[in-house]
Design a protein that fits this description.
The chain has 127 residues and is α+β, with helices and mostly antiparallel strands. It has a single domain (2-126), classed as DD-peptidase/beta-lactamase superfamily (Beta-lactamase, 3-Layer(aba) Sandwich), CATH 3.40.710. Helix content is 22%, strand content 19%. The protein has a five-stranded antiparallel beta sheet. The chain has a two-stranded antiparallel sheet with strand order 1-2. It is globular.
Length: 127
């Protein structure tokens, strides 16, 4: 995550060109819906995201886990509740590692929402 947040550098070394990071995190699927069920209240069902290379790219924030993310943030959630989201506009990478059982697997999950809200608040206090 830190490598992508730093636009291709990690530990003071360039490992990916900035052009490569831009390409990986650009939307390559046009206006096709992603299949995610978020943002119903915004009238954009499945269109809040596009697909980059191996990652979702947020077009517009919506209720749930993406509520605190800026447009252009990218990442992905996993089937068992893990998620990683990188928000270059705000300089934050969120990583939630869980093995869920008995809580919803959705961006509207209270666990995911609470995690990102708490992380955002903690980081905002440090700035």
């Amino acid at each position: 995550c830190q490598l992508l947040l730093n636009r291709g550098t990690f530990g003071g070394r360039r490992l990916l060109s900035e052009a490569a990071v831009r390409y990986l995190t650009a939307i390559h699927t046009g206006d096709l819906p992603t299949g995610f069920f978020q943002g119903e209240s915004y009238g954009h069902r499945g269109r809040n995201y596009g697909w980059g290379i191996g990652t979702c790219v947020l077009r517009m924030p919506h209720e749930g886990a993406a509520e605190v993310l800026a447009p252009g943030s990218f990442g992905h959630g996993g089937a068992w509740g893990t998620q990683a989201w990188i928000d270059p506009a705000n300089g934050i990478a969120y990583v939630l590692m869980v093995q869920r059982a008995n809580f919803p697997n959705s961006d509207a999950s209270e666990v995911r929402r609470s995690f990102q809200a708490a992380a955002s608040a903690a980081l905002a206090r440090q700035r």
